[in-house]
């Protein structure tokens, strides 16, 4: 993370040496961009290590477009979650250099342009129906500069599928486990690895699943230690937490 005091000193020195105009310095020191309907936090990367992320659900395509324009104007990495395909088409027509991942409903800076970390996160998904949440987690981590290995459709009803990849999972620095139904996969993984596990319950399941509430409660009551539970369908949160942990490991 950039030290704000050092940033300020550098900007003032550039102004003093006439390498930077006063107007450019004021632009760099501006903490947010007021768009009327939103105030875009331009210093979040200095405080938290990553720029403001756009939550697309409930925003119009035009609003998402304006926010992306603001972030791009300030050289920020773009990550917009929960963006429908129709909104994405509007946005990409105006920002064709960005990528849209339909399964995860994410618009972002192209993954291939981002240098990945040395440590990697394991994104583990119980079933195909959980893939949208798993991909939201995986892409969030990748946009934040984290190397990811995906282990999909390895739920407990066919536990041998998980064991085939268990050494690669053990060699990761953090696991994100995405599961619906009874959510048992997170306890199984936690009992097999020596690193933190982030469990994400999904709203996938029949009747008494209660849109993910039973999965959430099952994960919260899991017997294996080392598990932290995210909110229902919160792939973004799991990916973000995994990225923060790995960034801490890779600090100089």
From TrEMBL:
It comes from the Bacteria. Residues 119-251 form the PurE domain. Coiled coil: none annotated. One of its GO terms (biological process) is 'de novo' IMP biosynthetic process. One of its GO terms (molecular function) is hydrolase activity. SUPFAM superfamilies: N5-CAIR mutase (phosphoribosylaminoimidazole carboxylase, PurE). This is 1-(5-phosphoribosyl)-5-amino-4-imidazole-carboxyl ate carboxylase.
């Amino acid at each position: 993370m950039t030290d704000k005091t050092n940033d300020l000193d550098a900007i003032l020195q550039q102004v003093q040496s006439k390498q930077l105009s006063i107007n450019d310095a004021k632009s760099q020191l501006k903490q947010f961009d007021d768009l009327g309907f939103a105030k875009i936090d331009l210093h979040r990367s200095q405080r938290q290590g990553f720029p403001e992320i756009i939550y697309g659900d409930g925003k119009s395509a035009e609003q998402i477009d304006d926010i992306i324009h603001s972030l791009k104007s300030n050289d920020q990495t773009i990550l917009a979650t929960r963006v429908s395909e129709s909104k994405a088409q509007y946005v990409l027509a105006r920002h064709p250099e960005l990528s849209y991942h339909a399964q995860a409903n994410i618009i972002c800076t192209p993954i291939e342009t981002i240098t990945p970390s040395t440590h990697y996160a394991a994104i583990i998904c119980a079933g195909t129906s959980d893939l949208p949440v798993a991909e939201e987690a995986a892409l969030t981590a990748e946009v934040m500069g984290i190397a990811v290995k995906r282990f999909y459709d390895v739920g407990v009803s066919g536990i041998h599928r998980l064991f085939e990849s268990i050494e690669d999972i053990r060699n990761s620095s953090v696991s994100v486990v995405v599961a619906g139904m009874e959510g048992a996969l997170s306890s199984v993984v936690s009992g097999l690895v020596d690193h933190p596990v982030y469990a994400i319950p999904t709203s996938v399941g029949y009747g008494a699943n209660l849109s993910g509430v039973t999965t959430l409660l099952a994960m919260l009551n899991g017997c294996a230690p080392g598990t932290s539970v995210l909110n229902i369908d919160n792939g973004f949160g799991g990916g973000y937490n995994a990225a923060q942990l790995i960034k801490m490991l890779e600090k100089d």
